[in-house]
Every structure is written in structure tokens, then in C-alpha cells.
Amino acid sequence: MKKLLVVALGALALASTAQAEWYVQGNLGYSKIKTSGLEDGGKISDKTFTPSVAVGYKMADWRVAVDYTDYGKAKDSYHYVEEYGYESGKVDLKARGVGVAAIYDIDLNSAITPYVGARLALNKIKITDHITEKKRDSIENTVERDTSTKLGYGVLLGASYDLMPNLAADAAVEYNILGKEDGVTVKQYGVKAGLRYTF
Fold first, then answer.
1. Which residues form a coiled coil (predicted)?
2. Cα angle value 87/91/95 (rounded, 5°)
3. Least packed by Cβ within 10 Å: which of 13, 40, 93, 187?
4. Could you list the residue range(s) of the whole structural domain that residue 76 is in?
5. Are 186 and 148 in contact (CB under 8 A)?
6. Do residues 53 and 32 touch, judged by C-beta distance below 8 A?
């Protein structure tokens, strides 16, 4: 995550030598976190709120932004019946990340500006599994935790509307691959809306 921040800050520093419009942006999103590739065909799938903040600059029709996004928390449960008992559990998945997005504004010479973009991110993914195992006459409770940092990528499509010369409302849809490990992929997709203030 530190390396990505260094690259992003370096890009923003280069922009300061050009005629760039700096801006800050805040968003609140509603999205779905979903996994694929878990053992026994299981999956985590849950809806969550996704707040984010960003700082960026605009040069002509291009924007570059550095953001911090809290993807939220997903929960799931499972229950397997075995020959001499059962195994059940509750899984919690939390994810957050720092990303860099390149965005192209499609100039329509109007107050509404559609845009498309691509994003790279370093995401921290934490999975906690509360397990209960019953074998014959014994019951065992354990907790397994796994935290990893993964490179993610995604795309976004949206539009902004100029409320004032320096203030715009923004809405977008996004799709992100948060990370992959041991054949398991964590995905996030949803909608978000917010405000962007240009200095």
C-alpha cells in the first residue's frame, strides 16, 4: 500500500507544475461484496454501504484521483452435516483500500458531464471464521482469522452535474476485483453518489 501511495503522490506532484484544477470529493455508495472459488462451492455474498473520499486534479478532459474506500463488511453462515456430527460457522469479511483512478470526462458542453474510468488499488481484506464442530459427544469452537493485502482493479461509469462553478454532484456505477488468493476471488460492485469541490 505504501508503494502505491508513493506513485500516486508523485503523479499528483507532477501535476502541480501544470495548470491543473485540484479537487476533493466525498461519496457514499451501496454495493455488493461477493466471493467465488471457495471450497465446497460456498460463497460470501452481502450488501453493504461503501463510503469513500478522494483528492485529485483535472487537466483538460482527464482526471487523476487518489481515494480511500471502505468497502464495508459482508457476512455469511454455513452448516455441513458429516458422518459423526456437523460443522457450522459464521464468516465475516471486511475490506478497505487505497486506489488511484484515471478518469476521462466526455465534454458535451452542458452542465452534465458523463465519464468513464479505470482504477488500481491496494486492498486490505480481513476474513474471520467462527467455527463450531460437533463430533460424537464433543463440541469444539474455534476462530480462524486471515488478513491479506491484495492488488485490485476495476472500472467505473458515471456522470457529474454542475451545481455551481466550483461544486458538482456526482453519481456512478463501479465494478472492482478486490483481490485473489488460493483460487478465491473477492468482487465488489454497486452505485455511489457524492459531491466534488474544485479549488
1. none
2. 160
3. 40
4. 2-198
5. no
6. no
For residues 138 and 182, give the distance between their C-alpha atoms in angstroms, rounded to a whole number.
Answer: 31
pTM for this entry: 0.81
What is the domain-level CATH number for residue 66? 2.40.160.20
> Taking a C-beta distance cutoff of 8 angstroms, is the pair 173, 156 a contact?
yes
* Total domains present in the chain: 1
